[in-house]
Amino acid sequence: MKKLIINADDFGLSRGINKGIIELFNSGVLTSASLMVNMPGFEDAVRSIRDNPGLGVGLHINVLRGRPVSPVEGVGSLCEGGFFHGNVNRLAALCYTGKRCLEEFAVECRAQIEKALSRGVRITHLDSEKHVHILSPLFKVLLTIAGEYGILKIRSINEIPYLGQRAGLGRVFKKQSYTALLLSCCSMINRRMLETYHVKSPDYFYGASVTGRMTLEGCIRVLSGLKKGTTELMCHPGYIDEEWQDPVLNRQKYYINAARQREMEVLRCLGARGVFKQYGISLSSYGQL
Prior knowledge:
Helices cover 42% and strands 15% of the residues. It has 10 helices and 9 strands.
């Protein structure tokens, strides 16, 4: 059987993004969302979760944007001026060269999980902003924490089977395709850890190579060749409004913002055209893994 988890990242980032995610869930297309607990739209997202109990909600571990949930002095290597420093390369270098970064990452992960749980959120899975948890040292830390809290589902990036089906991709996509390939290779290395910690992950993944450039034609090409098993399709739907004047939101650039409403239309069209039924795809969620 071919199962598909359509998961929206950045739930809780802003009210406009929350609105878009809930609209797609209510339209019967979106099945899951990943919650950011340290961003301005968090409390609005919690209310939306209570009003829409069928939505699967994972935790989008965020150590790159906004302020930490834990005290800043306890996660100093991850921060600069009271905010996360937001540099993926710097974080990668730190996590491979010293224990301090790993210890602080663990402190912040637990704080973010505890904040979500304290609001009554039932966490279905774990993933992260910019997929930093795929870095093997951070992946091992997160698997340990996942076991502590009984959250035994986690995102892996296995996009290799779909990289050859990138309809309409030109040179502008090459960097993202290489990133998707690198993340997929890291996930292959991590797969043995999944078995050791008894944590599950979808068999395949699609979205890293087309983040911000998702097209209807490209999605149909991928869905028509979907593999047996469970695939996660990552998306970033939502609306951008005046809330983005908030200094926490506009402190760093979100290049994906220009494409959020377009992604909403792509996903709506997939549902309206009956693509899932046409290709024998059953919509699923992390809770059904």
